[in-house]
Amino acid sequence: MNSKLVKTLRVFSRTVETGNMSSAATELAMTTSAVSQHIKHLEQEVGLSLFNRSPRELTLTEAGHVYYQSCLKMLTLAEHASSQLQNLQRNPSGELKLVAPVGFGSGLLSEPLKQLIHQFDDLSIQLVLTDEPVDMIKSGADLAIAIGPLTDSNLVARKLATWPLKLCAHKDHPLSKIQHATWNDLECHARVSHISADSNAFNALTLDSKPLPKAKIIVNNMQGLTKLVCDGVGYGVLPEPEVRSLLKSKELIEIAPEWSLPDYTVYAVTPARDSLAAKTKTAIETLKQCFNLVTNDKELI
To answer: 10-22, pLDDT tens digit by residue?
Structure first.
């Protein structure tokens, strides 16, 4: 509700309850003239006189009685709304709508989500996993996890972590049997690629930088890509945190390690607002802390 209107309604209600403008002015730490101006403005808005005026007292007109009852209801609603808004600013509560890439659903989000729901009883989370572009404004999302820089000026990105990419093949794939796979070896086998996560490889010894061999299969889902690589369909570039356990168990093997791939940065993305609700700020901080553990090679998945 408009703050100026709320103030005017409070002036009107105290004037009714004290019986005169000077007493209302004293209670509200205002001048009698200022109180009079508020009442006059309100009567102009309503188009009716709200008070019968005499030198000694003010009494409500019929319109004043009707408006006073409505005034009390509006002030109650305004106070309730103000209390709820203040709670949203101070305490993580309500529903947090979080959008994240599908691959994060394999375990990277388990610890931060567990912490949030265990620490804050009034908080619930709607998790949307998708690798497709999401219109945050239209979808009503509070927070999204995104990879790489943003182009939408209506959004704000906050860095959460920077993680490596690994060129991987299944342990039974022919490339995994080659101790030092060359570029020619890579070109002889099928590569599986994510539709929006392709990049050049860099050789620190020769200082060469070139794109990976053309992909035979392009996937729009990182979990699907990981599954295809694990099934031996081809080799592919995979986010290290998402396949860390598979690399440790030797289910997946890093191939051609002399060719490095650029790291990728994970961002917390929010609509461009002047201030964030407590639930969103707390979620960003929790994600950052948990992802920092992943960066430092402590298992969350």
So the answer is: 899 999 998 889 8
Burial tier of 28 (Cβ tally within 10 Å: 0-12, 13-18, 19+):
middle
- DSSP, res 16: H
The C-alpha atoms of residue 153 and residue 250 are separated, in whole angstroms, by 43
Taking phi over 0 as left and psi of -120 to 50 as alpha, with beta for the rest, 282 belongs to: alpha
DSSP 8-state code for residue 215: P
How far apart CA 93 and CA 19 sit, in angstroms, is 42
Q: According to the CATH classification, is domain 165-260 in 3.40.190.290?
A: yes
* Assigned fold of 94-163+264-295: D-Maltodextrin-Binding Protein; domain 2 (3.40.190)
Domain borders along the chain are: 3-90, 94-163+264-295, 165-260
Euclidean distance between CA atoms 154 and 210, whole angstroms:
34
Question: For the structural domain made of 3-90, what CATH number should be given?
Answer: 1.10.10.10
The pLDDT of residue 255 is: 93
E strands of 171-255, at which residues? 191-194, 200-203, 208-211, 217-219, 235-239, 252-254
Taking the complete model, does pTM exceed 0.70, yes or no? no
Tens-digit pLDDT profile for residues 116-142: 999 999 899 999 999 888 888 888 899
Count the Cβ atoms, other than its own, within 10 Å of residue 32: 14
